[in-house]
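Thread: MoaD family protein, structure

OP (GT): Posting the sequence first so everyone is looking at the same thing. Length is 92 residues per the record. Can we get the structure tokens written out before standup tomorrow? I want them in the notebook alongside the other entries.
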Amino acid sequence: MAIEVRIPTILRSYTDGAKAVEGEGKTLEELIGDLETRHPGLQDRLVENGTLRRFVNVYVNDEDVRFLGGLSTPLSDGDTVTVLPAVAGGAR
């Protein structure tokens, strides 16, 4: 099962600069575990204490996984997972 994972610039040091990588898994949690075997260190940047990090947004086919089941979100062959760091701040 091939799933495309789009990687933000800030995490590309873990993927040797690749903008997108492929992984496998029936759930988001399995996919992240698979990515960790291929790109060590990536899992720690996405998951903390068994949940997605607060300032990391993950989308499956443009749907926010926080509303789909978090790490238990089911995945299918051909899905696209997008990882986006949350951005905050700015001038008043």
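GT: Both are above now. Quick notes for whoever picks this up: The chain has a mean pLDDT of 91. DSSP finds two helices and seven strands in the chain.
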